[in-house]
């Protein structure tokens, strides 16, 4: 092989490897994940905004859709009758909503970055935005990072 053919061949190999990693990471995301931890770094301190034992589910499907629900475990409400929620006071409704975030939309993967395209969210400021996360896999776990913050998920069986 002459030198002039070697450079385009190496570039082609790099492109195929990049596409394979992207496809592989996307394929590995497909399924349902259980939240193990959510840590946020503020002023050099690790905070647990949903407590040290949050509850959550994250799903990715082959059609490119995603949804996430995360909440603080042990949430309580003064409203015991589900049909009474519509008549709840502001404080009662705030208590219900506190400690919970849910959203849905689509996703795509570019190398080790997954982008969630948020269609609707309990945090109105996220609706219509793209939320990028760095992803890594460790055995049955998925680690998603955004800035100094980290969510650790464990794959649930199909």
The CATH architecture term is Beta Barrel
Largest sheet: 8 strands, antiparallel, barrel
What's the CATH class label?
Answer: Mainly Beta
Give, in spatial order, the strands making up the sheet with the most strands.
1-3-4-5-6-7-8-9
- Given helix and strand content, the structural type is alpha+beta
Portion in helices? 10-25%
- CATH-defined fold name: Lipocalin
Overall shape = globular
Strand content: 35-45%
| Count of DSSP-assigned helices | 2
Which stretches are low in confidence, meaning pLDDT under 50 for 5 or more residues running? 10-20
> Helix and strand succession?
HEEEEHEEEEE
Mean pLDDT: 85
User: What is the radius of gyration computed over CA atoms, rounded to a whole number of angstroms?
Assistant: 20 Å
The end-to-end span amounts to: 48 Å
The count of β-strands is 9
What number of domains? Answer: 1
Question: How is the secondary structure organized here?
Answer:
Layout (H helix, E strand, L loop, with lengths): L2 H27 L1 E12 L2 E3 L7 E6 L4 E7 L18 H8 L2 E11 L2 E9 L8 E9 L2 E6 L2 E7 L3
Antiparallel strand pairs: 1-2, 1-3, 1-9, 3-4, 4-5, 5-6, 6-7, 7-8, 8-9
Can you characterise this structure?
About 7% of the residues have low confidence. The protein has an 8-stranded antiparallel beta barrel with strand order 1-3-4-5-6-7-8-9. It is globular and about 50 Å long. The protein has one domain: Lipocalin. A hairpin with a 2-residue loop joins strand 1 and strand 2. It has 2 helices and 9 strands, in the order H-E-E-E-E-H-E-E-E-E-E. By secondary structure, it is an alpha+beta fold.
């Amino acid at each position: 092989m002459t030198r002039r053919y070697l450079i385009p061949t190496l570039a082609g190999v790099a492109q195929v490897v990049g596409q394979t990693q992207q496809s592989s990471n996307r394929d590995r995301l497909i399924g349902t994940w259980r939240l193990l931890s959510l840590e946020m770094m503020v002023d050099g301190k690790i905070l647990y905004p949903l407590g040290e034992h949050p509850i959550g589910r994250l799903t990715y499907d082959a059609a490119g859709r995603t949804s996430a629900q995360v909440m603080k475990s042990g949430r309580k409400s003064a409203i015991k009758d589900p049909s009474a929620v519509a008549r709840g006071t502001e404080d009662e409704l705030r208590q219900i909503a506190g400690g919970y975030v849910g959203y849905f939309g689509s996703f795509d993967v570019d190398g080790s970055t997954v982008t969630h395209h948020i269609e609707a969210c309990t945090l109105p400021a996220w609706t219509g935005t793209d939320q990028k996360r760095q992803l890594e896999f460790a055995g049955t776990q998925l680690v998603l990072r955004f800035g100094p913050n980290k969510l650790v998920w464990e794959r649930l069986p199909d």
